[in-house]
Amino acid sequence: MTDTPVARLLVVDDEESIREVLVDFLTMEGYHVSAVSNGKDAISSLQKNDFDAVLLDLKMPGMDGLELLGHIKRIAPRAFSIMMTGFGTVQTAIDAMKNGAFDYILKPFKVQDVIRLVERGLAQQSLEAENIQLREALKLYTVSEEMTATLMPERIYDLLIDTAREEMGADALALWTNQPDGFRCERRWMRSDLDEVHVNIVNGVDVGALEEALDLDISGIFHNGEARKFIPKAGQNLVSIMGVPLRAKNQTIGVFVGFAFEENRRFTEGRRKMLAVLCGRASAAIENAKLYQNLQTTFKETIQAFANLLEDKDPYTRGHSERVSKYARMIAEGLDLPDSEVELIADTALLHDIGKLGIRYEDLNKAEPLTEGEYEMFKSHTTRGRWILEPIKFLHDLIPGVYTHHERWDGKGYPRGLAGLEIPLHGRILAIADTYDAMTSHRAYRRALPHDVAIREIQAFAGRQFDPSLVEVFVREISQDRSFKKAKAARWDALKNTAKHKRALEAPRDSGTMSALAAPED
After folding, report:
1. Which of 203, 401, 452, 514 is deepest in the core (most CB within 10 A)?
2. What is the DSSP pairing of strand 240-248 with strand 221-223?
3. How far apart are CA 381 and CA 415, in angstroms?
């Protein structure tokens, strides 16, 4: 016994004797064979049934074989055709092949020759099907890897639509996600030649009803009247729809829907299975992306909590961490670093002084110079910062910057005396951002320095305390930032003055004021 499906053949010939001979012999070979006498009946049969092959006569009344070939390609693109003719010429063969025939055979023919042609066509058809399956499997693997690699739901939506568009042969596709207030359309694609009627069909689908039907383990493919239950106003424009749920943790997180408006695009179970696999991969990737986003939120909240704790201990330097974070971000963006790296540097800056939690507040803000012991205690905040963060695995990426932001380019810094490029990039960036804010902020032991003075100091120590290339970036970026803010403030002042002047002109004036204004000067 074999599970291989029996091939279905359609014989189209106006000669009854030929039809009967072919039906008898091909049936004895184990095929399911149907026969009709003309092109019109052939088209009707092709629309109602799936055929693997069509054997058709070239010369028939009404519609000849070449014209029928065009309809076969449109209605049953998977089926192959064998042209039968008693008028065999080289041009006949050329015309048949140009119109999509797999091969042709001359009348009168031997039935065994016809059988061999059918077997060869089915073998090639099977090979093409295997190639398609391999291509689909490779495509699914590639797309699955890309979905897994990205942590952005929007990118996953795009991949899902793009892949289905290439592989499904649908007229339109749409993806809805399940939100607290109902289903929301995230992505939609339609053939460019479709009109407003088809747009309304796609927009009018009852996604909730479709999702309920899919929950009942229905196959997900609905044709004609069954399809129109979900889109009552679709009418005869809708041939079939295919719905596949996206599920995670036994919850429906979305529904992917394909639309077919033409008979030759009617959905098959094979297409549904392929889309189900694709949606399964997408569901897992979307869930991972959401988990990552939740983790990122927790990460940010944890960092902010630590920063708040630090500044609550030392209110005199309140806002220092946020400002250092702003300047560090400025430098990172000026270096055109990836967004993820920029965010990491900005987050590290928020916690660069976390080690000061282990130092007494009175020692941090003495008006008089620190003793040698107090200075050593102050220097330990870099090491203490690393010690605080090490038990928290998801904060490990912050440690290099926290630990090395007091190292110097000339090797005279602490805690390890690293020099030049031995110092991690994050530490070199934070050294500049931290020093600039320290100089331009009020402290217990001195007043804040003006911006221009602080910039000259940083430039003077480029190549000694600071990475000279990063100093150039910082000076450029902060100058542009200050220029932009000044220009914005000037525009705002001009708008306020214009509005003030307009209100003054429009304000009502009493007669005494008017008289005073109108009176000539002495």
Report:
1. 401
2. antiparallel
3. 9
What is the secondary structure of 240-271 as a DSSP string?
A: EEEEEEEEETTEEEEEEEEEE-SGGG---HHH
Which two three-digit tokens encode residue 139? Answer: 């495509």
Amino acid letter at 455?
I
> In terms of C-beta density within 10 A (0-12 exposed, 13-18 middle, 19 or more buried), how is residue 257 classed?
buried
What is the Cα–Cα distance from 123 to 121, expressed in whole angstroms? 5
* Cα angle value 502/505/506 (rounded, 5°): 85
**HSE (side-chain half, CA atoms, 13 Å) at 164:** 35
| Alpha carbon distance 167, 195 (integer Å) | 23
Report the distance separating Cα 69 and Cα 51, nearest Å: 14
pLDDT of residue 195: 86
Which residues does the chain have with pLDDT short of 50?
1-2, 511-522
Q: What pLDDT score was predicted for residue 509?
A: 56
Within a 10 A sphere around the Cβ of 376, how many other Cβ atoms? Answer: 11
- Write down the pLDDT at residue 516: 36
DSSP state of 466: B
Q: Who's near 117: CB < 8 A, 6+ residues apart?
A: 82, 102, 103, 105
By three-state DSSP, how is residue 31 classified? coil
The 10 Å CB-count burial string (b at 16+, else e) for 118-151 is beebbeebeeeeeeeeeebeeebeebbeebeebb
DSSP letters of 399-464?
Answer: HHHHHHTT--TTS--SSS---GGGS-HHHHHHHHHHHHHHHTS-BTTBPPPPHHHHHHHHHHTBTT
Could you give the CA distance from residue 33 to residue 55 in angstroms, rounded to a whole number?
Answer: 10
Which value, to the nearest 10 degrees, does the dihedral of the CA atoms of residues 47, 52, 58, 63 take?
0
- Rounded-to-integer distance, Cα 377 and Cα 141, Å: 56
Give the 3-state secondary structure of residue 514.
helix
Under 8 Å between Cβ of 122 and 52: yes
- What is the spatial distance between Cα 283 and Cα 271, in angstroms, rounded to a whole number? 18
One-letter amino acid of 363: D
- pLDDT tens digits, one per residue of 56-77: 998 888 898 888 988 888 888 8
- With 0-12 / 13-18 / 19 or more C-beta atoms within 10 angstroms meaning exposed / middle / buried, residue 428 is buried
In terms of C-beta distances under 8 Å and separation of at least 24 residues, what long-range contacts does 463-467 make, across chains too? 463/409, 463/410, 464/408, 464/409, 464/410, 465/408, 465/409, 465/410, 465/413, 465/431, 465/435, 466/408, 466/409, 466/428, 466/431, 466/432, 466/435, 467/409, 467/420, 467/423, 467/428, 467/431, 467/432
Q: What is the pLDDT, as a whole number, of residue 300?
A: 78
Distance CA 142, CA 517 (A): 82
**Residue entry with tokens 């098959």:** 268
Residue 521 pLDDT: 40
